[in-house]
């Protein structure tokens, strides 16, 4: 699949919605509702810099999340490029999960 070129600046809502397509491979919940996306910036060239974390710094599936992120933002044509800045402070915790994320985890049998 080839990347489609973004023709306009994406909105913050567009980026957040696209990131809902990025699913934590261990938990099966999107990274937005898990609270793994700490923030992002969209530059004038429609490139996005994400501040993200993982549920554990030792996560063996970082590459999977990076690939999904690139597909959701760049390959889709929403953005021209993406850079992920992995952030470990503050550490991720269950308090960062959104209400929707909690509902999804409960549906999978987790107690949150």
Topology, please?
Blueprint: H1 12-19, E1 37-42, E2 47-52, H2 62-75, E3 81-86, H3 99-107
Parallel strand pairs: 2-3
Antiparallel strand pairs: 1-2
Produce a short descriptive summary.
With 112 residues, the chain is of the alpha+beta class. The chain contains 3 helices and 3 strands.
What's the count of strands?
Answer: 3
List low-confidence stretches. none
Distance between the termini: 38 Å
| Name given to the CATH homologous superfamily | Fe-S cluster assembly (FSCA)
Q: CATH topology, which one?
A: GMP Synthetase, Chain A, domain 3
**Overall pLDDT confidence:** 93
Instruction: Quickly count the helices.
Output: 3
Structural class by SSE content = alpha+beta
Biggest sheet character: 3 strands, mixed
Helix content: 25-40%
General form: globular
Summarize the helix and strand pattern as letters: HEEHEH
Oligomer: single chain
Widest β-sheet, arrangement of strands: 1-2-3
Q: Could you name the CATH class?
A: Alpha Beta
Percentage of residues in strands: 15-25%
InterPro entries: Fe-S_Maturation_MIP18 (IPR052339), FSCA_dom_sf (IPR034904), MIP18-like (IPR002744)
Domain MIP18 family-like: 12-85
Protein name: MIP18 family-like domain-containing protein
């Amino acid at each position: 699949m080839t990347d489609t070129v973004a023709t306009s600046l994406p909105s913050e809502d567009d980026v957040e919605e696209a990131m809902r397509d990025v699913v934590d491979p261990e938990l099966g919940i999107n990274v937005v509702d898990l609270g793994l996306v700490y923030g992002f910036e969209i530059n004038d060239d429609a490139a996005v810099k994400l501040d993200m974390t993982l549920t554990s710094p030792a996560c063996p599936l970082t590459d999977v999340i990076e690939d999904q992120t690139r597909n959701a933002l760049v390959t889709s044509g929403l953005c021209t490029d993406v850079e992920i800045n992995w952030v470990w402070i503050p550490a991720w915790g269950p308090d960062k999960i959104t209400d929707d994320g909690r509902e999804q985890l409960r549906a999978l049998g987790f107690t949150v």
